[in-house]
Amino acid sequence: MSDTIQCPVCSSEFTYPQNEMMVCSQCFHEWKPGEITAGAGDGTQKIVDANGNELQNGDTVVVIKNLPVKGSPKPVKAGTKVKNIRLNFDSDHNIDCKIDGFGAMALKSEFVKKG
Fold it and tell me: What own/partner pairs with CB < 8 Å and gap ≥ 24 does 103-112 have?
């Protein structure tokens, strides 16, 4: 297993090649191995939404599916608009935000689209 390439998002060693891309079996992140190693550590990381649009701090996003919230009887409904997001590159829940009726929480970028 010394030949494996770690996932740049979740650091999992369970990755596999698919065509010219590498795929993480844990978080399903896809990347080209040459691009990640060349850009690692120089601040070129980016977070994309469900449609592949790059997200920035302060963007407004829309939730694309109902998301259950631990400790709450109701989910965050699809179509909920979330304003002024903050990106977090250190976690798999890579969007920090405040949602009316729920308060501060973290979302995964794969469940939102840029709005």
Answer: 105/69, 107/63, 107/67, 107/82, 109/47, 109/48, 109/49, 109/50, 109/55, 110/49, 110/50, 111/50, 111/63, 111/64, 111/65, 111/67, 112/49, 112/50, 112/61, 112/62, 112/63, 112/64, 112/82
Tell me the C-alpha distance between 47 and 35, whole Å: 15
pLDDT of residue 8: 78
Average pLDDT of every residue of the chain: 84
For the stretch 10-48, pLDDT in tens is: 778 888 888 888 888 888 788 777 654 433 444 567 889
